[in-house]
Amino acid sequence: MSDKILVVYVTRYGSTREVAERVAETLRENGLQVDVRPAKQVRALEGYRAVVLGAPLYIGRWLKDAQRFLSRFQADLAQRPVAVFSLGPTRLEEMATPDVRAQLDQELSKYPWLKPVAAELFGGKYDPATLRFPDNLLGALPASPLHGAPASDARDWDAIRVWANDVAIKLR
Ligand SMILES: Cc1cc2nc3c(=O)[nH]c(=O)nc-3n(C[C@H](O)[C@H](O)[C@H](O)COP(=O)(O)O)c2cc1C
Question: In ligand 1, which atom is closest to the CA atom of 123?
Fold first, then answer.
């Protein structure tokens, strides 16, 4: 098996890709060889000795491509160290609420065979002006938590770097 690490991500509006790229950069600074790919483009995991998966939360769940990736590569992932990060809350104050972390834990619990060496939730990015159908409808619904929410970027780049440094140590 080669010594490479695969950072694989799922994204709808690009914020998770940017975090995946930053995680990869930090892993490289730690001397690791890293490829970054969208989940849909991954054909095989043979060339990789470990995987970092990044996926955003949408309405309490990971996007379908993350679920598909985990199901498709279950056998390979079960034999490799895997670290997971998720993007979610778009306002920093939401990061402190326990139900937000519960959404990530809930997703992880669907894959009991997956024993991540690290699993972390980071703040996400939200811009109502860029939302496409049907996401834009959610913002328009008065009952939605996103209703009237302003654009925000709660990605904490220092926390992301600290986490990726820790993952690098675990994967070394
Ligand atoms: C329609 C919609 C639903 C969302 N639902 C959740 C949610 O249930 N929980 C959460 O923590 N974040 C939620 N978010 C925030 C996203 O996870 C966040 O914006 C993330 O950065 C998006 O990642 P992406 O740009 O890679 O697609 C939602 C965002 C949108 C637009």
Answer: 21
Ligand 1 atom closest to the CA of 121, numbered from 1: 11
pLDDT in tens, 97-108: 777 889 999 999
65-91: average pLDDT? 96
* Domain 4-171 belongs in CATH node 3.40.50.360: yes
Amino acid at 166: D
Domain boundaries along the sequence of the chain: 4-171
Q: Which residue has the tokens 């992932």?
A: 77
Q: What is the pTM of this model?
A: 0.96
Q: Which residues contact 61 (CB under 8 A, 6 or more apart)?
A: 67, 103, 107
Beta strands in 104-156 (DSSP E): 118-122, 125-126, 152-153
Question: Which residue puts its alpha carbon closest to atom 21 of ligand 1?
Answer: 124
Over 90: is that where the pLDDT of 2 sits? no
pLDDT for 102-153, tens place per residue?
Answer: 999 999 999 999 999 999 999 999 999 999 999 998 878 888 888 888 999 9
Total Cβ atoms within 10 A of residue 16:
26
Question: Which residues in 62-82 are b (16+ Cβ under 10 Å) and which e?
Answer: bbebbbebbeebeeebeebbb
**Pocket around ligand 1: residues whose beta carbon is below 6 Å from it?**
11-16, 56-60, 87-90, 100, 103, 124-126, 131, 135, 138
